[in-house]
Write a sequence for this structure.
């Protein structure tokens, strides 16, 4: 199975900050990488797929980049509703695997 | 609008089985895979497998082979996930999530989750 790591595991930030989360796959996955946002008690929400394609309805302050093994999620101007846990997921091969998550909380 | 509505919370004893349902609406049920993903308390997301509602074909994660069964009833647009021989570490929220067969978009709409508690 492809292993996914994320960094940092958590971060504290303020509204208006630029936030970057990285994701690394144990082998090349081309651009088969998605980012999900999860708030406490809620299901994950798809933000970005194909490494950089914004899901319909997701604000443009979210962006993704990368290919192969290294990927990045950037939130350009953090809003109060963005405090959540973020997961990356590879869908290059089965089993689908997720990163351990990055919790973004209020500084 | 697309909705996936799951069955309610369950409490089971070790060794028992649980069957969780996921009722789809707002789209063509047979046009999308249905994945099942679980999340233990305070932990990350773990993929369990998918079912193709059109054919009934399945693809299970090796970890769950022999213990999980995914089925569907197309007449009521509902997918099911049954997990047998439950252990305490199966305590988790179980989610269903759909994925288009051909669009290249990973699971986009998710159910609200079903908490399964395994305790003696």
């Amino acid at each position: 199975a492809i292993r996914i790591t994320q960094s940092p595991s958590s971060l504290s930030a303020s509204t208006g900050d630029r936030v970057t989360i990285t994701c690394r796959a144990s082998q090349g996955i081309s651009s088969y990488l998605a980012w999900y946002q999860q708030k406490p008690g809620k299901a994950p929400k798809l933000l970005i797929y194909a490494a950089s394609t914004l899901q319909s309805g997701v604000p443009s302050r979210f962006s993704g980049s990368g290919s192969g093994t290294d990927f990045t999620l950037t939130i350009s101007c953090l809003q109060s509703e963005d405090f959540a846990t973020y997961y990356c997921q590879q869908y290059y091969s089965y089993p689908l695997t997720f990163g351990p998550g990055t919790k973004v909380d209020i500084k | 609008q697309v909705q996936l509505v799951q069955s309610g919370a369950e409490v089971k004893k070790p060794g028992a089985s649980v069957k969780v349902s996921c009722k789809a609406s707002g789209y063509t049920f047979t046009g999308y895979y249905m994945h099942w993903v679980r999340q233990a308390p305070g932990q990350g997301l773990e993929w369990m497998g998918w079912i193709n509602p059109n054919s009934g074909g399945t693809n299970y994660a090796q970890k769950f082979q022999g213990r999980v069964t995914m089925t569907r009833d197309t007449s009521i647009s509902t997918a099911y996930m049954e997990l047998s021989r439950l252990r305490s570490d199966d305590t988790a929220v179980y989610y269903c999530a759909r994925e288009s067969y051909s669009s290249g978009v990973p699971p986009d709409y998710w159910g609200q989750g079903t908490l399964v508690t395994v305790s003696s």
